[in-house]
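Q: Okay, next protein. This is Heme O synthase from Paramecium tetraurelia. I've checked the sequence twice, so it should be correct. Can you predict the 3D structure?
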Amino acid sequence: MKITITDLKILCKFSLASGNAVIPFISFLYLGEDNVFSLKSFSLLSGSLFMAMASQAFNQVIEWKQDKLMTRTCNRPIPIQRLTRLQGGLIGFAFYAASNVLMYNYLPTNALAINNLIFFSYLGIYTTLKTRSPMNTLIGAVIGALPVVLGAACVSNDSLYNLGMWGNFGFMFSWQINHFYGIYWKYQKDYLRAGFKMVNDSAVASRHMKMCLAINGLSWFGTASQHSQPELKFISCISGLLSLYFWNYRAIKLFEVDPSKNANYLKKASYNFLLVYYSIILMDIGIKRYQKQQNH
């Protein structure tokens, strides 16, 4: 059976995997001083990308029956038999092996261990819980925030105790809750048809998001306190207050009025929230690199 580039991209969810790879890369640049184009940077970016692609491929091998029942996933390569489960597994294993080779040769051992922890936790814990317990969303968000720790581990062990790192971790954890509930309540019938166990009480979902609103605030301002320039700290705090209100608090209140109708706004608001947060971090990375260059 011929494997096309399109099938490969869908199987490995290339766009999502690329996003998963960018998060540890930004964490690495934010906490360290390595050149963007260094071998270490390349190994982290490509290694985390390949591991994310491997996890998505294996996820589709495992959940092919559920994918077949859902409108939004029924045209994936395995459900429509453009790929067999064996082919999907072999592709996943190839990316998994490539990721480990890259990281083993050029990155610290603890970074390799964290990368594998993310992979096995995603498949062994999160994927398993999706058909067993509504707790899968909160647990999945913890696993989804671990790439931040991966980036820090590539800098040094001391970076694992940095306030900025934990601010990033808290932000990524809480961001995922709003983002996923936006997706879930938009496609709720699809998820129920496939037998996934999700939070179906909008009041409970709202409580989760309000809890994460507080975590988001603490995380945002914790990260802002670590920025290199006083002006950037101020900009970050003001941006944080506005973003927390318009794209977090307001999105939650609209969700409470009509979850199904406003789920799409909740999802779109989460993207805006993420964009502002990481734009400021990238500004800080750029300023620090520029100052270092000027000093030399």
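A: Here is a summary of the prediction. The chain has a mean pLDDT of 95. The first helix runs from residue 5 to 11.
Q: Noted. On to the next one.
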